[in-house]
Amino acid sequence: MESMLSFLLATLAAPLFPGIILKVKAFFAGKKGPPLLIKYYTLAKLLRKGSVYSTSTSFVFKMGPTVSFATALMALLFFPLAGVKPVFFFHGDVIVLFYIMGIGRFFTILAALDTASPFEGMGAAREAFFSTLAEATVFMVLILFYRMNGSLSFTDYFQSQNPITLMSPNGSLLLFVVVSMFMILLTENSRVPVDDPATHLELTMIHEVMILDHSGPDLALIELGAFYKLFFYAAFISHLLIPAKFAGGAAGGAVFVGTLAMIYVAIGVTESITARFKMNLVPKYILTSFALVTFAAILTTMGLV
Amino acid sequence: MTHITDAVLVIILLSVLLSLGSNRLKALVEIMALQGIMVSLVPLLLEYKAEVHHGGIIFFQIMILIKGVLIPWLLYMAVQRIAIKREVEPIIGYHASLLAGLVVIFVSTIVTQKLHLTLAAGRELLLITAITTLAAGLFLMMSRRKAITQVIGYLMLENGIYLTGTALTKQSHTLYVVEFGVLLDLLVGVMIMGIILHNIKDAFDDVDTTFLGSLKD
Amino acid sequence: METFLVALGLLLTGGAFPLFTHRLFNSMKAGYIFITAVGCLIGLYAVVLPLRNPEIMTVSWSWLHLFTLSFSIDSLSAFFLIPIFFICPLTALYSFHYMNKEQQSGRTAVNFFFFTLLIISMALVVTAKNIITFALVWELMSLSSFFLVMYEYQRDTTRKAGYLYFIFAQAGAMFIFAAFAVAYSHTGSFAFDQFARIPSAAKLIVFFLALVGFGSKAGVFPFHIWLPHAHPAAPSHISAVMSGVMIKMGIYGIIRLYGLLAVTDPIFGQTVLVFGMISGVLGVVYALGKHDIKKLLAYHSVENIGIILIGAGIGMLGVSSGNRAMAGFGFAGCLLHVLNHSIFKSLLFLGAGAVLQKSKSRHIDQMGGLIKNMPITGRTFLVGSISISGLPPFNGFISEFLIYYAAFQGLNQNGSTFILMMLSIISLALIGGLAAACFTKVIGIVFLGEPRSANVAGAVECGLTMTAPMVILALSCLVIGVLPEPFINLVFLGLRDMQGVGAVGPDIIAGIARNLAFAARLFLGILVLSTVLRRIFYMKKEVSRGPTWGCGFTLPTVRMQYTGTSYAMSIVEFFKPFVKVNTSYSGINEIFPTKTTYASRVDDVAEIGLNKAIIGPLLTVLGKMRWIQHGNIQLYIGYIVLTIIVLLLFI
Predict the structure, then answer these.
(1) C529, C563, C583: which is the final residue of a domain?
(2) pTM of the full structure
(3) Nearest CA to CA, how far is C374 from chain A (Å)?
(4) Cα nearest neighbour of B113 on chain A
């Protein structure tokens, strides 16, 4: 019951946090910025509208938003939030989940290619390339976690006897993981410095250009799915940051939400002070995150942790 | 307090890795500043339990000042003055460099295990970090084109040697006296490098080391 | 065992049937397909018993009073018989509409005959019980598939591909026979059961010689060169069987030999694992670089063989380290992937055949939008693509998950095993991502968007006998993905008679199968829910159609679409040291450029290496020996006499 409640809360609150990013960016630019609830307004507006479909598209185009939304929901169903057990969990769910996110990406890419637009094809190619590299990093993190904790489930990672947090006795290696997971968060959720959600030139986009032709409720589903995905990654990192003793209870929930908000602030700060990479430098950026975690994994062979 | 020491060592490893992947000279210098500070902190943290007298404290403060502030500042000025293109210009690409970094740490892990040194508890990571930093410094000197990156590579090498010394010796201040001498040499070296670089730039309009090849007869 | 022989007998009659009736084209095809299907069904039924019953059935004849030909079905053989008897009748059915040239009815009949021979020989390969039998049926399999590849023999490229395949098949067979010879010299017996008695140093030689031979049949990376040539040359249903089923015989050989040798040295597992990782990653990278749809699929076979070998390697390392879960799940993932790959790869080859037949082109950059004209082919191909990318809720994911699971079990160890497990998990993740990239390319460029040529625009859906097998195969992909429990149990049943692989606790297996099934069903449920949600949002909404937003450009043409070449180029270039990319670009030299051209080609480093290291020197040496052949018939007779004398003197 409690799990279901936290899941529902997460699905409702996820669009709130990206508003923080916009606020932070506006602060850095010396502007007032849009209201915190801007994303809810956007969603409501999109849901009221109808859609225009390209004559080039087939049923695959309409499946894209639905599948990517469903995969994002799956991720939240399996992820523990603020010391509360997730709705479902089993040994090995991490592998299943990252692969299910893969199928969401698969259909997003196909939907982009379905429009016959050269720009959307370009975005799709970049998405396919970068997310493949990011997947290597994610699995390296799983390897490291298995070494530290011997489990293959989000719940066991963060809520077992021996949870994985930065404050645990052998947590210093997790510094690597926090840094590289943050890099992966930026990559997978198309944030600066990999992708710029606010740019106006289609040639330089990755994710935004892929969904150019979606409109109305379809676009709303995509946006909502993207918020869930971002929420998932941010929650992942906050679990690493929060000490084990704060898990559970109202205080734990407050600490969790606070940390979560801090991560969104960090994203906003990153976006404000860095410029987007040249496209050919992105693989290097992702490889750096991979190398960081691999460092940590190699160090575990020393019996240091 | 091994926890904080480990964290510092991890940050050093992080800086090594980032330095292999960074493509901007300025960023590289900033990373070196961070690395310098962290490296000079290590012996201080290791001595936490032992008594540190005032001389030691002052000594370490000077160390941080030189490694973390003075040398990076000199390098920064050099970059500002002489480098027209502030890109690193690698001979071995960034992707390959990063993977090479992984291989380096892997090999240094094996080496540390194979050496069977009688290290004090918690010193294994220190030795790994030391060897990695040392080798990565050499790699940086080998794989980058600009003269200034050679200097940075040399700095990193020195950091590695310093850490190796810290790892292998029992705490005795005589070591640091020697180190201090080396550090002063290094400082002078960096200053001289600044002057030489300036002259190279005057002569060749660039600081690319490949041009030095034309000096052979 | 009798049922099995009856099935083979029936298949043989079916194979001979078209030879006599080829004048009646359609009834020949129908009759052949019917008999083959019945034969294969009986064969499938014959498999059930040995899987259920732990006792091993054997049959043997004495041949020429010198050798015994003996066959037996244990659980491993039975497991490998399943894809043979499941895939082959479907591809035979497919050939009814695919082989539609009535003027070539004689050739079609011969093709059918060799197809039957291939089925029978494959079934015999997995049941052969001694060296002689194995060698005989192995050769029969290579030869019959060679004739199948040569179907369009009047084409130059086909002949070249056929000869290349022949050379690889024979060279591979040489290695296998050499391995057997070494084994025979130590045991003095032809029987397979004696292999465990070989001294361990010789076991190493036997295994590695055979690994090269079986590897060249399976398409393991440096020995895969024939695959991307032979598959495009052969008719599509033949490619489907060769890629889906026949190359698995190489895998069977490796696993069988490993079981027979009963070795526990980690070097075996390590080698297999390293070969697997190389094949897996490079196979998919080359697939990304290729734009001939069948060549691309051929490279994907190399990739999937890589995944299968990773599973096998992990299993072998598990046996070496005594880690039962690792051994069991590694081999289980390997075997399940054998089954899965046979399903989705033949599905994809059949789909590719349908596309080729209708669009009359092989280059994917000339296709586009086919899913509108060929809805069934397009949808089934989509299912196959998701499965081969290893994504849930389809079958490819189940086997990859088992391999992942085994690899994670091995992470607890230190030293080289840890490093290898780490590398294999990363390569699996990389392979999965790249395969998804490659198949989004294929689907996106071939089936989605706008048609790029007139032939493609005018394509129509193909006949019922071609779509029916594809639908059946696509459904099987979904069934294994959503109801994995019986199939995971089946795989563990298949492992029962493998020596050295200890049993894994049934609770663990059942638990994993249940969880996988649950996740797949949950995902499907949520997907349905989201679809319903979307429907609700669209109620009473205005939906209209218009052209794609051209980002301000108002005169888009179909040639402006992103091509497969550009889609894959940045990924392929990332792997540059291992992949040779040749590009030629005319460049823009004038202020008002007229015509510019750009072409790129991805060359296989293994092929270049083979040419440089073996073929080049061989040609030089043989060129110098040319004088032996001078056309004088009397001297040739002299050679013969001389040879006989020398032989008589020295032997």
Answers:
(1) C529
(2) 0.92
(3) 12
(4) A302
Nearest to A176 among B3, B10, B101 (CB): B10
- Residue among B11, B98, B106 whose CB faces A288 most closely: B98
User: Chain B partners of A171 at a C-beta cutoff of 8 Å?
Assistant: 3
CB C32 within 8 A of CB C88: no
Q: Is B33 on the interface with A (CB under 8 A)?
A: no
Task: Output the 3-class SS for C508-556.
Answer: HHHHHHHHHHHHHHHHHHHHHHHHHHHHHHCCCCCEEEECCCCCCCCCC
pLDDT band per the 50, 70, 90 thresholds, residue C68:
confident
Distance separating alpha carbons of residues A262 and C305, to the nearest angstrom: 46
Across residues B140-161, what is the average pLDDT?
83
pLDDT tens digits for range A245-257: 666 678 888 899 9
CB contact under 8 A, A132 and C372: no
Residue C377, domain member (yes or no):
yes
Confidence of residue C628 (pLDDT cuts 50, 70, 90): confident
Which residues constitute the domain of residue C628? 603-651
Indicate whether C426 belongs to any domain.
Answer: yes
> How many domains in chain C?
2
CA distance A256 to chain C (A): 27
pLDDT of A296 strictly over 50? yes
Q: Which of residues 199-238 of C touch A (CB under 8 A)?
A: none
Which of residues 158 through 217 in chain B touch A, CB cutoff 8 A? none
> C37 to each of B210, C14, C96, C127, how far by Cα in Å?
72, 9, 13, 21
Which residues are C584's β-sheet partners? C599
Question: Per the CB < 8 Å rule, is C425 touching A135?
Answer: no
Question: Which run of H or of E encompasses C582?
Answer: strand C580-585
Kindly state whether residue C422 falls inside one of the protein's structural domains. Answer: yes
* Rounded to 5°, angle at Cα C428 from C405 and C514: 30
